[in-house]
Amino acid sequence: MSKPLEGRVAVVTGASRGIGRAIAEELARRGAKVVVNYHRSAEAAAQVVAAIEAEGGQATPIQADVSDFAQAQVLVKAAIDAYGRLDILVNNAGVTRDRLILMMKEEDWDTVIRVDLKSLFNTCKAAARTMVRQRYGRIINISSVVGIAGQGGQTNYAAAKAGVIGFTKSLAKELGPRGITVNAVAPGLIPTDLTADLPEELRQKALEQTPLRRAGRAEEIAYAVAFLASEEAAFITGVVLPVDGGLVMSG
Q1: CATH at 13
Q2: With 80 as the cut, is the pLDDT of residue 250 above it?
Q3: The pLDDT of residue 201
Q4: Which of 16, 30, 125, 205 has its CA 20 to 30 A from that of 75?
């Protein structure tokens, strides 16, 4: 089996479970050495590393709260110290604090904006220095269809994920002349820990509005990310790729 990402080094934030885990494992399967970033779930991150190594890949877990500027800088430095370079950055870390705005606390707003949006500034600022020197890099940010179409009860999450889209397009223009592509993937309904608390009514509504009439799988998001990280996607930048079974199209 060919290894199209052989020799590349990737950092995946929030990689201990769900979509992040699927991305880390898929990038490793394609030959990349992967830094499995986690915040609190050390045991889960170790399981991801073990799964990658069991398939003959290379990975290392690194703890960092990427919503904190200093810790994000340490994460990127640790990745470069471990593997000598950084080629692929996947910003996947995210949280939800769903409430109608009349019930939403300021803390709910601040937490989601900090983790889901500010973390991109933190990691990209650190990674861009190395990628600019290399004149090569792939940055893939995980947004959401909610950032495109909105969703009641998720003003904080929608604002953050819409911000990810604007951030992606702007950074693509900044870094393109240095050979660095910046793209976003916008998942639809994907059953993970992050969506476990989604009310059943909203879940059913999303399924009904999805032309393919099913939820997606974390692996399907990982395939899209792996493509955007590949040489085949070298002329794609500033793009938001919905992986949603047609949900946004139907909304």
Answers
A1: 3.40.50.720
A2: no
A3: 73
A4: 30
pLDDT over 80 at 1, yes or no:
no
> Choosing from 38, 83, 157, 223, which is the catalytic residue?
157
Question: For the chain, what is the domain count?
Answer: 1
Q: How far is CA 192 from CA 19, 71, 102, in A?
A: 7, 25, 27
Full-model pTM? 0.94
**Within a 10 A sphere around the Cβ of 173, how many other Cβ atoms?**
11
Is there a domain that residue 69 lies in?
yes
To the query of whether residue 157 is one of the catalytic residues in this protein, the response is yes
Q: Domain limits at 100?
A: 9-242
> Are 35 and 59 within 8 A, CB to CB?
yes
